[in-house]
Each structure stands twice: as C-alpha cells, then as structure tokens.
Design brief:
The protein is α/β, with parallel strands linked by helices and 214 residues long. Helices cover 51% and strands 13% of the residues. Strands 2-1-3-4-5 form a five-stranded parallel β-sheet, sandwiched between helices.
C-alpha cells in the first residue's frame, strides 16, 4: 500500500480546520498530520511533520499566508502549498503565487475538489480555481506599456544627446567624442527622429525631463 499524502492545515479559523480535517479524514490516501492556527505555528509544524501538501489560508493575524508560504518553502522547497481562501483580489493572489503557491482554490470549492487538488499536487500537477486562471490569463493578455522613445537610442546616440543637452555644438560634440562633424549631424538626425522631436532644443528638454542629463 502506498504511503498516504501527508497534509497540514494552516487556517486561523478553528471551525474551518475541524471541517477540513473531518472531510479529508474520509478520503483514501490522504492523512491530516497537523493543524495550525497561524503562520508561525504552521511553519513549526511543517518542519516537524514534513507534510507533502499544506492547505494555506491567506488572511491570518500576525504572519499572513503570503509570508508564511514564502518562509515555509524556503525551508521545505519540495512541499506543495495549496492556497484555500475566500479572496480573489490581485493584492493577495499574485503575491502568494509569486511566493511559490502551487495551487489556488476558493473556500467555496467542494470537498471532492479539494481532495483532487491535494492528490494532483502530490503528483506535481497544479490546479487553479477557474476564476483564478481567468484572471491570470487576462493579466498576460494586457498589452505591455510602450517603451519610452529614448530606449531606442544607441549608446553613441545617448552620448550625443547628453552632450547636446549640455549645450555643446556639433563641433564640440565631435571633438569630445573623437568623431567627425558629419557623423555628429547623422546621430542628431537619428535622435530627433527616434524621440519624435523637431530640433535640438526639444531633444535637450526631453533629456532633462527623463533624467538623461544633468
């Protein structure tokens, strides 16, 4: 007979822990090895029992589920943390996933769904609540903000821009960079085009506004 999946419950509501322990106790191949009422106790019990899976609440007094997950996984990286929470807001969901949470379920999930997530986690398979998966996909679909125009400048063009902003003439720029005046004019033309400005003065103003020149 295979060893049962060891599960630790971390939730600051006693009735939630009692209910989960009772339900999971009827599932074949799953054993609740401990219950913790806060994050600090959860880490202590995790180090003691070495659970395969931790069911983690997010909102707890003292150390919340995000920090508890981060610290627990730093010491037990092979453990799988399943978030079981009532919250779907971005301020909690994304940080705990970044902290290493393996799966994310809502407390409205059926007992069979929680048990399925535990078995899946033990087999290295992540399960996300459908609403969570939708939010994550929508986040990736959001267009990334356009890069600032000066990010298109080459290193040499950036040098020329800084010197222009410093009041240097084309000849002075050429002398300082050891290049020809025609080359400087070529760079200036490219700089104006990439920044979308009409003249050297506007280029200098852009440089100062964006912290590219002192």
């Amino acid at each position: 007979m295979d060893n049962p999946i060891k599960v630790l419950l971390v939730d600051d509501h006693e009735m939630v822990r009692i209910g989960l322990a009772a339900v999971l106790g009827t599932e074949d191949g799953i054993e609740v090895v401990g219950e913790a009422g806060n994050g600090k106790e959860g880490i202590r019990l995790a180090l003691e029992y070495k659970p395969d899976v931790v069911l983690m609440d997010l909102v707890m007094e003292g150390m919340d589920g995000i920090e508890t997950t981060r610290r627990l996984l730093a010491q037990l990286p092979d453990c799988k943390v399943i978030v079981l929470t009532s919250f779907l807001d971005d301020e909690k969901m994304y940080p705990v996933i970044e902290a290493g949470a393996f799966s994310y379920l809502l407390k409205t999930s059926r007992a069979s769904e929680i048990a399925q997530a535990i078995r899946a986690a033990a087999n290295g398979q992540s399960i996300l609540e459908s609403q969570v998966a939708s939010k994550i996909m929508n986040r990736f679909r959001q267009p990334k903000p356009a890069a600032a125009p000066h990010h298109e400048l080459t290193d040499r063009e950036m040098e020329v821009l800084r010197l222009i902003a410093g009041g240097r003439s084309n000849q002075e720029v050429a002398d300082e960079l050891y290049i020809g005046v025609k080359t400087v004019k070529f760079h200036v033309t490219n700089i104006l085009a990439k920044l979308g400005v009409e003249d050297r003065t506007q280029a200098a103003i852009y440089a100062f506004k964006n912290g590219l020149a002192e």
